[in-house]
Amino acid sequence: MSDIDIIINELVKFRNDRDWDQFHNPKDLALAINVEAGELLELFLWKEAGEAKLEKVKEELADVLAYSFLMANKYGFDIKEIMLEKISKNGEKYPVDKAKGTARKYNDL
Amino acid sequence: MSDIDIIINELVKFRNDRDWDQFHNPKDLALAINVEAGELLELFLWKEAGEAKLEKVKEELADVLAYSFLMANKYGFDIKEIMLEKISKNGEKYPVDKAKGTARKYNDL
Amino acid sequence: MSDIDIIINELVKFRNDRDWDQFHNPKDLALAINVEAGELLELFLWKEAGEAKLEKVKEELADVLAYSFLMANKYGFDIKEIMLEKISKNGEKYPVDKAKGTARKYNDL
Amino acid sequence: MSDIDIIINELVKFRNDRDWDQFHNPKDLALAINVEAGELLELFLWKEAGEAKLEKVKEELADVLAYSFLMANKYGFDIKEIMLEKISKNGEKYPVDKAKGTARKYNDL
């Protein structure tokens, strides 16, 4: 079993043990991802990038990932597949010769 | 190589080919996760959970995951490890007998 | 009529002319605030604080404010009242002698 | 003095009493708006629109507004002016005859 499948199995077991699937529709999962992303962001608020507390970053990042994995699972998406496809698509939006060394958006390249 | 490592290798190669590591400090990665989470959320705005367009959800979810993987990589976190640790920690905050079937937060259980 | 009332009147007229009140339940308004906040945040992504484009900041900030005003209106909140009440409450959480010059959260003071 | 000016005066006094202007660059204010928007969103997570607790909504909405007012003040924007300008601009993007009764984005009208 792949690492991703092992993690998803644990997440789904955790959810099912608590009978939470009834709450986990895709819209609320999108809310949950945003709520956790906001908690992750708070760790950097009014701070330099290096000042966030590592233990907290680990936990909030894990929460963002957990709800993202659960959303993928809910839709039946293959995480590896959708990520590699998006990287490939981004390669077209950001060709190396135009995008190298600049943080501009693709529509400003 | 694990699926997660394969994905991270592709993300890092994509980033390095474009010389973007200079922009990817942890604080801006936290911003990027929030920006992408907001774009994912927008797909559900004013809609029922089932009305979001699948192809768009795939792409925005992949973006959230991509910046989350890159943040983990930046800190040297092992994604499987931090996710399994967080699930275990959440198991203590949400014991099955108290949390089953309710969406209340742990401090309201 | 106060400035806030003038703005709310315009927002409500705009919404009603388009028959959009049917979509503006408080939950979706909270989503809209987050979506717009994410677009505002994107203007600062990979950048120094001073590098965001002023015209865009104006527009995205106005969007955050618009949905926030519409949410207040939806609930019948008086914006001036809830803001002054929150400032007063924050004064208790962050007493000047403890909070002066530090960005720490109230539970770390 | 207008309502908006009264509120901004209180916010600025609160901030200056604590010597927090040093932290309030526009980028971190954008982060703060997102963090507070996330806390507002959390009140609706796993819930129907009508189930959020009013007292909490009031407080989190006031926080979103507070940082938005402070950002406007930081840039020297006139809140009434930028909001009315944006409403006018949105009127062009969403003409009544096309936008009436539909939640579609302007680029899908």
From TrEMBL, chains A, B, C, D:
Entry-linked Pfam families: MazG-like
BP GO annotations: nucleoside triphosphate catabolic process
Top-level taxon of origin: Bacteria
Keyword list, A-Z: Hydrolase
Keyword Amino-acid biosynthesis: no
Gene Ontology terms for molecular function: nucleoside triphosphate diphosphatase activity
Segments passing through the bilayer: none
PANTHER family (alphabetical): DCTP PYROPHOSPHATASE 1
Official protein name in the record: Nucleotide pyrophosphohydrolase
Organism: Chitinophaga barathri
